[in-house]
Specification:
Layout (H helix, E strand, L loop, with lengths): L3 H17 L9 H8 L9 H14 L7 H17 L8 H17 L2 H13 L4 H18 L20 H30 L4 H18 L8 H12 L7 H22 L6 H22 L6 H17 L2 H9 L9 H28 L1
Helix pairs in contact: 1-3, 1-9, 3-4, 4-5, 5-6, 5-7, 6-7, 6-14, 8-11, 8-12, 8-13, 8-15, 9-11, 10-12, 11-12, 12-13, 13-14, 13-15, 14-15
Length: 367
């Protein structure tokens, strides 16, 4: 079933795109940037059901990505549709789209500040008063909305008190998170390019899906968004006795989660780098803390370094350090007390990834 389910899900998505959505493809957050650059290009209404259905099928059937990007684009489409229906003056297209995104991310992570920052820092990229006001109202309304539902934490294990002596290690982990995010970005680019050159839809869909399914067969933690796998690893490495093979398995998961996500997207699955970055970064933080404790005599708390690794990798992947700090601080109980370590990891990863990205662009142009 691990091998078959991804093929079932991605094949269903292929036929939905071909017959229900008329061969119109989803391109992720890039679509939002395109529509914000001009008032003529819009996010068509079909993207609301398309992203919801395809994102659901991808994750439920084992595709190694998450529903965050699908939610962001579909909620942005809601804002764009309100703009098209002329319910407000046509000058406020950016405000409506960003407000919808702020609400969607707030509900996903239970963090009004995180949703607000994502809309302003990552989507709008402008500090206009009207954008700030619209995002503030939307995030507050969404936050009040989720208070009526049983909203738990993404990670049940609470963050714990940290010590100043760990700061140098947090700096190193931030740099590793930046490298991991850069690796992830490059793998996604190469996988999409490679799959794009495969002419046969049958071969493209099944080659990617079966490869992902095979990886899941040997590493079940890669299934879907992998938050369940992250919980298992946190519990395993926080116990007094850790099975000898687990560190090696975790090291493989750090590298394989970005690969599995890239293969899922290349084969036609719906999603993005949001959840995979969080999970792969958390795996990296767990492994880093374990190795330091094992071979350097430290007593680092596994959960703290998992959150720092997640914040660092997510920051570098989405180029949103402030967003990453507040989103990750909201995924576990007592996460707010790690604000400074999260900020250190996120900012270092962001700066490093930006420099590496610029270097890659220059190298490509030189070649």
């Amino acid at each position: 079933m691990y091998i078959i389910l991804p093929s079932v899900g991605i094949t269903a998505i292929y036929f939905l795109r071909k017959y229900m959505f008329r061969n119109r493809k989803n391109k992720g957050i890039k679509e939002i940037y395109t529509t914000l650059e001009t008032r003529k290009d819009h996010l068509p209404f079909f993207k609301i059901p398309s992203h919801y259905i395809n994102g659901f099928l991808t994750v439920v059937c084992g595709g190694s990505t998450g529903v965050e990007v699908s939610t962001v684009v579909s909620t942005a489409t809601v804002g764009n549709q309100v703009y098209k229906w002329k319910f407000m003056p046509l000058a406020f297209k950016r405000e409506l789209i960003c407000a919808a995104v702020a609400a969607g991310v707030t509900v996903l992570f239970g963090s009004a500040i995180g949703g607000w920052l994502f809309a302003v820092e990552v989507i709008a990229k402008k500090m206009q008063k009207t954008v700030l006001l619209s995002c503030t109202i939307a995030a507050l309304v969404a936050f009040l909305f989720i208070q009526y539902f049983d909203h738990g934490f993404l990670i049940a294990m609470p963050a714990q008190q940290w010590h100043w002596g760990a700061l140098p290690f947090m700096v190193v982990l931030g740099g590793l998170g930046g490298l991991l995010a850069t690796y992830f970005t490059q793998v996604v680019i190469h996988c999409k390019h490679w799959f794009g050159n495969i002419k046969s839809n049958f071969v493209r869909v099944n080659l990617g899906a079966i490869t992902v399914g095979t990886l899941i067969l040997f590493f079940p933690a890669l299934y879907g968004d992998s938050y369940h796998g992250l919980t298992t690893m946190l519990e395993s490495f926080s116990s007094s006795q850790t099975i000898a093979v687990l560190p090696f398995t975790l090291a493989l998961l750090v590298l394989l989660k970005p690969l599995a996500a890239s293969l899922t997207l290349g084969a036609g699955g719906d999603g993005g780098v949001f959840a995979p970055s969080i999970v792969a970064g958390a795996f990296l933080g767990i492994l880093f803390a374990y190795l330091c404790n094992q071979y350097m005599g430290t007593e680092f708390l596994i959960i703290n370094f998992a959150l720092i690794g997640a914040a660092a990798t997510l920051s570098a992947a989405i180029h949103g350090p402030l967003t990453s700090i507040f989103l990750i601080s909201s995924v576990a109980p007592n996460g707010m007390q790690l604000m400074l370590p999260l900020a250190i990891g996120a900012l270092i990863a962001y700066v490093l990834a930006k420099k590496l990205c610029r270097y890659n662009v220059y190298s490509y142009q030189g070649a």
